[in-house]
Amino acid sequence: MTFLDEEFLAAWCAAGHEPLGSASGTVVIKTSGGPDGKASASLEFSEGVLRGAAPGTKRGADLALEVPWQLAFDTVHGTADPAEHYMSGDLKVSGDMALWLELLPAWRAAGTLGAPPAA
Predict the structure, then answer these.
(1) Across the beta sheet with 37-46, what order do the strands follow?
(2) Taking the CA of residue 34 as centre, how many other CA atoms within 13 Å lie in the half-sphere pointing to its CB?
């Protein structure tokens, strides 16, 4: 299992996590610089809960996050602050900023997003 691969995403959805506010929508994570180069995943949130995740980029996503692979890993696992990296320009956000602003405080408070460990 590798971060953002199909097995990781399935385990992440099955593991569950605390709701991230009441946000609903599709969030795409696009990474570069990972073990296999670029990787992306589409995450479906409903009422703040991760309900589905799949490798790749879903068309019509509400929010897109572009971030180096290691920083994405660290942020999802609670060892990096997404707000800090957004402000420094390491994490780029496009799309529905209201969704970003709703997810961000809950994400920061949760630290980890309930993601399984991965290599």
Answers:
(1) 49-55, 37-46, 25-34, 63-68, 92-95
(2) 22
Q: What is the dihedral of CA 109, 95, 8, 72, to 10 degrees?
A: -60
30: Cα within 13 Å, side-chain hemisphere? 11
- pLDDT 10s digit of each residue in the chain, 119 long? 888 899 988 988 887 677 777 889 999 999 999 888 999 999 999 988 888 999 999 999 999 999 999 999 888 888 888 889 999 999 999 999 999 988 887 666 655 566 666 65
Per-position DSSP letters for 61-115, written without gaps between them: -SEEEEEEHHHHHHHHTTSS-HHHHHHHTSSEEEE-HHHHHHHHHHHHHHSS-SP
Residue of 97, 50, 85 whose CA lies nearest to 41: 50
pTM score, two decimals?
0.86
Token look-up 């180069």 returns 37
| Identity of the residue numbered 96 | D
